[in-house]
Write a structure and sequence with these properties.
This protein is α+β, with helices and mostly antiparallel strands and 75 residues long. The chain is built from three helices and three strands.
């Protein structure tokens, strides 16, 4: 994976464009790295979204697994 190094000001101005490139991004301030962003594969992204939604709905992992088992039986 190719890494792109950008100053924080450039990242601020071009964030959408830089993220669409799908590369790892190192953000620097005065030449010193301060953050690293890396693309997520689609499955990881979906899993993270599911976890965030579970937190919003106040559902534990155990409850989510139980719900999935119930749905699987209905299919």
């Amino acid at each position: 994976m190719k890494t792109k190094i950008v100053p924080v000001k450039e990242f601020k101005n071009k964030a959408t464009q830089l993220l669409k490139e799908g590369k790892e991004i190192i953000i620097t301030r005065r030449g010193i790295p301060i953050a690293r962003l890396e693309p997520l594969d689609e499955l990881k992204g979906l899993m993270m979204k599911a976890r965030l939604e579970m937190e919003k709905a106040n559902i534990t992992e155990e409850k989510a697994i139980e719900i999935l088992r119930e749905v699987k039986q209905e299919i």
